[in-house]
Specification:
Elements: E1 3-7, H1 12-23, E2 27-32, E3 43-47, E4 65-68, H2 75-80, H3 82-102, E5 107-113, H4 122-142, E6 146-151, E7 153-155, H5 164-175, E8 177-181, E9 187-188, E10 190-192, H6 193-202, E11 211-215, E12 221-222, H7 223-233, E13 240-244, E14 265-266, H8 275-289
Helix pairs in contact: 1-6, 3-4, 5-8
Length: 291
């Protein structure tokens, strides 16, 4: 049984990836600063911060894969706390690279974002881009294997109020109102977290060694059309939808991509969750939580 360490495995995406790995007969250890609410009986959990890890710790012995989902994943939080973003995203990424090298770990899998190739996203984008550059150069110098995963707009079970789609549905249900800071013509490719997590099993194959892989949804959708879908699914004919001008460089409008030297390949799972069905499932989940 191959051993896998999942840093940040208590979070939204990390917990789903840990589950998919366990279901595929990997020996999974989750390392996080907060206890996982989704820990399975066949998963181990270590409550520890990356900065406190000992590089010769026994947990790294005979490890095959190391996943890094840790760090600040919220754009607004990153903008508010730039120094914390440097520590949690960039510096901790370097520390884990050192651990991979020292312990001869087979592959390092880094959770990046489509914002890494974007002019939007402020400090969050900058931190992800910097991590990618560090991983690529570190790999050339130290001959380690990696796969960088650029995740798109995730949604689904275990998300919270910081998640965009969760916010929309939550606000529609409780306030009969949706607010969006940006243009109604903005375009997104939403991907269900279950599909994204399942795709991470495939990228462990050698075909994905030392590559940047983009994981987004199958459907290009305007924000205004998404809101109309939510309105129809929730049967809220009088739902108020407000669009506010976004003068900052926080979120992209039509595409996250800009000219850069690093090129990613897009990966789509053969089976995927239809967005309408995914929205319905999330709506039911939020309704159940608020009872």
């Amino acid at each position: 049984m191959k051993k896998v360490l999942v840093f940040g495995g208590s979070g939204f995406l990390g917990s789903h990836v840990a589950d998919k790995l366990s279901n595929s007969n990997f020996d999974v250890t989750i390392i996080d600063i907060k206890k996982s609410n989704y820990l399975k009986k066949n998963q181990k959990f270590i409550n520890e911060d990356i900065k406190d890890l000992k590089k010769n710790s026994a947990i790294f012995k005979n490890c095959n894969y190391l996943f890094n989902f840790a760090g600040i994943a919220d754009i607004d939080e990153s903008l508010k706390f730039p120094e914390k973003t440097i520590t949690n995203n960039i510096l901790n990424n370097f520390k884990l690279l050192e651990i991979v090298k020292k312990n001869n770990i087979k592959k390092y899998i880094f959770a990046s974002s489509v914002y890494a190739g974007s002019n939007s996203g402020n400090y969050y984008s900058l931190s992800k881009n910097c991590c990618e550059d560090y991983i690529i150069l570190y790999s050339k110098i130290n001959s380690i294997k990696y796969t960088i995963l650029r995740f798109g707009s995730l949604y689904g079970d275990r998300s919270g109020i910081k998640n965009g789609l969760y916010q929309f549905i939550y606000s529609a249900l409780l306030k009969n109102k949706i607010e969006f800071n940006g243009s109604p013509e903005s375009i997104r490719e939403f991907i269900n977290v279950e599909d994204a997590a399942l795709s991470t099993i495939d990228i462990l194959k050698k075909d994905f060694d030392n590559k940047i892989i983009t994981l987004t949804g199958h459907q290009l959708l305007k924000i205004k059309d998404l809101h109309e879908m939510i309105k129809e699914i929730l049967n809220k004919k009088n739902l108020k939808i407000v669009y506010k001008s976004n003068k900052s460089n926080t979120h992209y409008r039509l595409t996250p991509y800009s000219i850069e030297e690093k090129i990613s390949k897009k990966y789509n799972p053969k089976l995927y969750t239809d967005l309408g069905e995914g929205l319905l499932q999330l709506s039911k989940k939020i309704l159940h939580e608020k009872k």
